């Protein structure tokens, strides 16, 4: 079986696509490939997530499971945030770096299995987690966020449940325990 997009080194044969889209009022160009999530279009969940975010210039954003960079790079261009993009997938990270150059934005982009290689704290953490990888991955994105958020920071994720996309925004307060949902 072919390794999925949440694998470190997907083995799918390359199938490069170029997407020219408008997101948050910005013209964006993305190279995509087989072995990454949503290679032929910007998925509905990512589009919905972007529309729900109210970030301010120079705030720090961590994009967990960034794929080819749709969320983080769009936010850099549209909102002038400081973005860090991480993913386990090397192919996706290579594309994210190329897409940062194509869209003339600066972002920190590196490999990390969720928060494994992430240091520091952020104003915001965003994610369109790989649902096909299983609930445990989604729970790790949620549970691990607290250690990487500044006081008053938030985690915003989009998940598919019962064939509908839902955006969940969690504001972490001191001593808040993670609710199971």
TrEMBL record:
Residues 27-164 form the Methyltransferase small domain. CDD domains: AdoMet_MTases (cd02440). One of its GO terms (molecular function) is S-adenosylmethionine-dependent methyltransferase activity. Keywords: Methyltransferase, Transferase. It comes from the Bacteria. Gene3D superfamilies: Vaccinia Virus protein VP39. GO terms for biological process: methylation. PANTHER family: RIBOSOMAL RNA SMALL SUBUNIT METHYLTRANSFERASE C (PTHR47816:SF4). This is 16S RNA G1207 methylase RsmC. It comes from Streptococcus constellatus subsp. pharyngis SK1060 = CCUG 46377. The lineage of its organism: Bacteria, Bacillati, Bacillota, Bacilli, Lactobacillales.
